[in-house]
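Input.
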Amino acid sequence: MATQRARVRTPRPSGRRATAASVLGELLLTAGVLALGYAGWQVALSDAVLGGQQQQAARAFAAELGPLQPQQAAAESVLRTDEPPAETAVADGESFAVMYIPRLGQFERVVGEGTSRAVLDSLEQGLAHYAHSAQPGQLGNFAIAGHRNGQGGPFTRLDEMRIGDRIYVQTSSAWYAYEFRNHEYVAPTAVEVVAPVPQMPEVPADGRYLTLTTCNPEWSSRGRLIAYATFVGWQSAADGMPLELARTLGTA
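Output.
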């Protein structure tokens, strides 16, 4: 009886063979990720460039408002706590103040009157004053809006504020200092945050407040991030920049 020759099977590869369609799909996916990354990089770069322009505009406007170097000796440079000067309201769209927030780095931005896109998107301004809120240093709530992202993104890092951080506002009359107290996350409809007493619209103003508003989360208008601060003192514009701010900025 003849011996039956054994059949030898060639092993098949365990992995599936790549097809033209799968390769194309992976290439398209990679291209999409790269495109999104590039778009994000462009937006971030754009914010940095526009923010730099707003910063330069703020420095130029600050010099117009009054002397920037402290005019008093260190021992005399103490913020006043008596009644501050009365600020005069300006026309819609007009620049009237510069805000400094050392916690956010080299942060100087011009404050314009009214919350129109013309003010918020401006390369000469960037921060917008709620028209019916208080003036700087005035009894009530000095309320300011700014973009979280885009158009220079002045408030991108607003969530980094810490209790006790100082916020300074310079006008042609005076320098006003506020101290950060807390954050709050609210719906876009929560207009009571800019009431004379924040979140208490039925209560008459009993103090001097500063409220900063921006979008939350980043790149979304679904909610609002609010930063609250309270007034701690002022000094005359003729006395130049408060010494504590000048030291923080490295100009004293």
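The mean pLDDT is 87.
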